[in-house]
Amino acid sequence: MSRKQLARSGGDLSRLGTDDTGATMLHLDMDSFFVSVELLSRPELVGRPVIVGGRSGRGVVVSASYEAREFGVHAAMPMGRAMNLCPFAEVIPPSHGLYSSYSQKVFDLVAQVTPDFQQVSVDEAYIDVSAAVRRLGSPVRITSQLRAEIEAQTGLSASVGIAGSRVVAKLASTRAKPHGQLLVPLSATREFLDPMPIEALPGVGEKTKEGFFRYGIRLIGDLAAVDEAWAGRVFGAHGHHLWRSAHGLDSHGMDRQVKDRSISAEHTFNEDVWDLSQLEHELLRLADKVAHRVRADGKVATTLGLKYRLADFTTLSRSITLDAPTDLAREIYEALRPAMRNLREQKSKGVRLLGVRAAGLMDFSASGRQVRLDEAEDSGREAEVALDDVRKKFGTAAISQASLLRKRPEHDNTGPDHV
Ligand SMILES: [Mg+2]
Fold it and tell me: Per UniProt, where does Mg(2+) bind (predicted)?
């Protein structure tokens, strides 16, 4: 079962009530965002099973229409598996650039409601409307208007959870999907959370779930009923965090939430750089830094970002949606290098700062990435993971650029650092 299906299995929502006093945290999540964006230009496919994702053997499902989900297809599933489940689905490769422009339109509308929002992915944000209530009305009213506005301006639909905290708002938006909104009144938080399966709680993966099951904790309500100190003793800091979530409490500030959702690194050059091999060297170093942290978190990235700042502080960014998620420096580097080269050619100016960002993070175990290890072609994964151990022992300085690319002799001539 996917996390979404899990979050949907819970109690009766009609009994939660309608008092939205103090329920000022919204979680907005666009409905099957990538598919919906594609359908805007292919109206003939509306109502049919549609999958956005890479068609190749290593491809995964980026997004599936609700019609395809009926067959059990969901995001992060290997495409081969998805095609077995739903052979007649229309598969559309991701359109680079299109998603971020629609995303921008959506969040421009959110920004008109309040500046107090945190975008956590291309189609998702937490919005604190406490400062907007006086001007725009109650949280439920603000939500209805915002959803109508998004639909009118972009043709896309959003679902929104309305609650007193981020964790409850997120679970509520999942229950509201698609095309819906759900208020969890402050007084109904327990009633909402208690009957949900423990693995619906953000941060509970397969391993943690098994741990909870050993102690008979199967529902969020079971975890809420134990002592916080016990949860901390058995599960460490994560136990405290999950226990707080089970009570509908957020552990971190909004910034932390954002950090959890993307991993980035950037570098400011001492002098503006124009030399391509020097730029490529830095891009690879940043890709390595980011990939290392993505792996350390047990994640893979589905979206990559490039930040490119010129001497006059003009900052350009490029976002790339991957056919297959990655946690490898070499793949991040290769995905971003064409964008960097294009910017360099377009702008013909020295570069002040370069940045690499990995986003749309999903659990490695859910990514279908293992499938690739069985393939004949060496993905280079083992080599990079081995480097993680070297780092642990000797520090980052022990890693040379060459060791990252050594499996790819065709790169030997792209610059002095790649030999
Ligand atoms: Mg979404």
Answer: 29, 123
